[in-house]
Amino acid sequence: MCRSIKTLRAPVTPDPQDADIHAAALQYVRKVSGFRAPAAHNREAFDEAVEAVATATRDLLDALVVRGAPRAAVDV
């Protein structure tokens, strides 16, 4: 699922930007919901889900402790 979402974890991606996190969250919500762009009556729920996933992603990345030498970037 969501094979084209790139790895955002350091050291693979140094200091991921908010735009990268939002793009990954948007892609995830699109995949899970089955909607590329939601209808007007689903827009609020869709946008709230994107923000919740983005927040959870930022929290996760901020909490991770990465050990070892940096490795080359690999898309997962």
Description:
It is a single chain. The model has no long low-confidence stretch (mean pLDDT 84). Helices cover 49% and strands 0% of the residues. It is built from 2 helices and no strands. The chain has helices at residues 18-33, 43-63. It has a domain at 18-62. The chain is mostly helical. It is elongated. The N and C termini lie close together (10 Å).
* SSE pattern, N- to C-terminal: HH
The main pleated sheet reads as: none
Provide the gyration radius in Å: 14 Å
Question: What's the average pLDDT?
Answer: 84
The share of residues in extended strands comes to under 5%
Number of helices: 2
Instruction: Give the CA-CA distance, first to last residue.
Output: 10 Å
Tally of strands? 0
- List segments where confidence is low: pLDDT < 50 over at least 5 consecutive residues: none
What sort of overall outline do the alpha carbons produce when their principal axes are compared? elongated
InterPro entries: DUF2277 (IPR018735)
Pfam families: DUF2277
Protein name: DUF2277 domain-containing protein
